[in-house]
Write a structure and sequence with these properties.
Elements: H1 17-30, H2 32-47
Length: about 50
Amino acid sequence: MNFCGECSPLPAVHHRKPFVIESLLFFIRRSSLKIVIFVGKIAKMTQI
């Protein structure tokens, strides 16, 4: 079942989507404070 080994270094990622989503949510939760600060800076810049 290694049909997309050339285009992706992780061919099993198609069969492990729940795991990918969980890690993505964990990453977003861990860096949510940075994202909020970044969005706040952009909002202030666009208001001026």
